[in-house]
Design brief:
The strands form three sheets. Strands 8-7-10-11-12-9-13 form a seven-stranded mixed beta sheet, with helices on one face. The chain has a four-stranded antiparallel beta sheet with strand order 1-6-5-4. The chain is α/β, with parallel strands linked by helices. The chain has helices spanning 4-15, 17-34, 38-73, 84-96, 120-123, 155-163, 185-202, 236-250, 252-260, 279-290, 305-313, 350-358, 399-410, 421-424, 439-451, 460-467, 474-493, and strands spanning 74-79, 106-111, 130-135, 139-144, 147-153, 175-180, 205-211, 218-225, 267-272, 293-298, 319-324, 367-372, 390-393. The protein is extended, with a radius of gyration of 35 Å. α13 (399-410) packs antiparallel against α15 (439-451). It folds into three domains: 56-113 and 127-202, no CATH class; 221-334 and 341-393, P-loop containing nucleotide triphosphate hydrolases (Rossmann fold), CATH 3.40.50.300; 399-494, no CATH class.
């Protein structure tokens, strides 16, 4: 008698579809192997095994041929990493060559959009930032002006750049530019074109440079859109005088006159006034007006006189050097023996600052702008002519400037700004179209707005803070200004009465 379990096993095999598929696969493989020529199979295995060795041989041969060709038929120019020219060339290659190819290698970085418009509540939230992917390349070949070029980036310097938190994926690695031929003139023309391209791109922006986190070199800190001078509100006559003076200084004929008379080609300005009156903003606007880069030096952050001297020695001639908070040096002679309280004091000395401004080895050709909130502290030796050639007082806002600021805030939006809902209700019923603010009405609102602003009381930044609350409606701004002024005046008069809450200890 047949055992019962054999029948069950046979029955399950018969009903299991996976077993049928496996048996079918075995039959197919067996049929294919039986018809396969073992000699051909061995030849195929031998070819597969020899492929890596052949590939290594081809790579070695290519390196030898390429080294021979590059030595005799290719000219090179090397641009060090972190040099400003390096960034210009890299940006040109990324824009005009790499982006038109199928790129499979990218540099990812957190994208922060400068000047992005967002509602105030969103700015206070912790939101996930966008990711920006920049095309990355190591070696790229391209034709340009009937010449074959190759641009290579050093991997070693690239890895070093990635460690730096300020690295943005553009520039920073040593570049080697090669051109097929015995002459380097095509490479020089290419570099010149890269510079011209960078100049065209930068005409709408101001590049602000600052020292890196190690204090070793100047690095681009930010790129800001050019700010118009009319957005900085102070005396119009003084503004025109300042522009005329800088324009005359930058005239090439002025430089020739200075040199022919053996005079140092320098110009210095002092911007002073209360905090929030636009001293730094005016410096940025002037850099944009005259197409100059801005080199920012925060005096309280400079460690020693030697560091300050090194900073000035590395500043290029055609630029603006912004020395902020020069009163931190505590240069007033009669206060030298007084112990300062609650003040930020720089480690730099007066003699160190004077030396970089007009010492024997101080560079020429740059514009130096010093800012301070406390001009009475500055030593007379610092502000004498030759070191400070013009003083600009930036004070509180006037009625006329307040009116100009109102028009600037809303004039460009006169075709889209709605009136108050209460005024919309006065229109004929059934009209869903929102009424618009025209230029004439806006000027009346600006004039009414200015009547509520007391002379020489509020700083431009205070008034700008008010406008931020009403950017979408000029009617609300004009109607709410009087209440805001009353609150600000009462808050200012009661500052001395603020209750100081202690830590609970007697």
């Amino acid at each position: 008698m047949r055992p019962f379990h054999l029948g069950v096993t046979t029955s399950h095999s018969f009903l299991d579809p996976s077993m049928h598929g496996l048996n079918s696969l075995r039959e197919i493989i067996g049929h294919w192997i039986s018809g396969l020529d073992i000699t051909r199979l061995g030849s195929l295995a031998a070819c597969v095994g020899a492929a890596p060795a052949a590939w290594r041989l081809l790579k070695t041969a290519w390196r030898e041929v390429y080294g021979w060709v590059s030595h005799f038929f290719i000219s090179y120019v090397i641009i060090p990493g972190r040099d400003p020219l390096n960034r210009h060339v890299t940006n040109w290659v990324l824009t005009n060559v790499v982006q038109f190819r199928s790129v499979r290698s990218f540099t990812a970085r957190t994208h922060i959009q400068p000047g992005a418009i967002a509602d105030r509540a969103a700015l206070l939230k912790k939101t996930r930032r966008d990711i920006q992917y920049l095309p990355h390349f190591e070696t790229v070949w391209f034709w340009y002006e009937s010449n074959l070029f190759v641009v290579r980036r050093s991997l070693d310097s690239f890895n070093a750049s990635m460690v730096d938190s300020t690295y943005d994926g553009i520039g920073g690695e040593e570049l080697t530019i090669g051109c097929l031929g015995r002459s380097t003139e095509p490479i020089k023309r290419l570099i010149q074109n890269c510079q011209e391209y960078a100049d065209r791109q930068a005409q709408y922006y101001v590049i602000i440079y600052a020292r890196d986190r190690y204090g070793m070199s100047w690095q681009p800190k930010s790129r800001k859109p050019i700010r118009r001078l009319e957005t900085v509100h102070f005396d119009d006559a003084l503004k025109r005088e300042l522009l005329t003076d800088i324009r005359k200084y930058l005239d090439p004929n002025t430089k020739k006159l200075y040199q022919s008379r053996s005079m140092p080609y320098r110009r210095g300005y002092l911007f002073y006034g209360p905090p929030g009156t636009g001293k730094s903003s005016l410096s940025t606007a002037l850099a944009g007006e005259f197409g100059l880069d801005l080199y920012e030096v925060k005096i309280p952050s400079v460690a020693t006189d030697q560091d300050l001297e090194q900073m000035f020695n590395e500043v290029p001639p055609q630029c603006i050097v912004l020395l902020e908070d020069v009163d931190a040096i505590w240069v007033k002679r009669e206060l030298a023996n007084r112990e300062p309280h609650n003040e930020t004091v720089s480690n730099c000395t007066l003699s160190g600052l004077l030396n970089v401004l007009d010492g024997v080895g101080s560079p020429e050709g740059r514009i130096v702008i010093m800012t301070t909130n406390k001009p009475n502290r500055l030593d007379s030796a610092l502000v004498r002519p030759g070191r400070v050639d013009m003083k600009v007082m930036l004070g509180n806002i006037s009625k006329g400037s307040a009116e100009q600021m109102f028009l600037r805030m809303f004039m460009s939006d006169t075709d889209t700004l709605p009136l108050l809902p209460s005024q919309k209700d006065n229109d004929k019923l059934g009209d869903d179209r929102m009424p618009q603010v025209d230029h004439e009405l806006l000027r009346r609102l600006a004039s009414e707005f200015a009547t509520h602003i007391p002379e020489d009381t509020f700083t431009p930044s205070q008034l700008q803070g008010f406008f931020q609350l009403h950017l979408d409606n000029p009617m609300e701004a004009a109607s709410n200004i009087s209440a805001w002024v009353e609150r600000e005046l009462s808050a200012g008069s009661s500052d001395d009465d603020i209750e100081i809450v202690g830590n609970g200890k007697a």
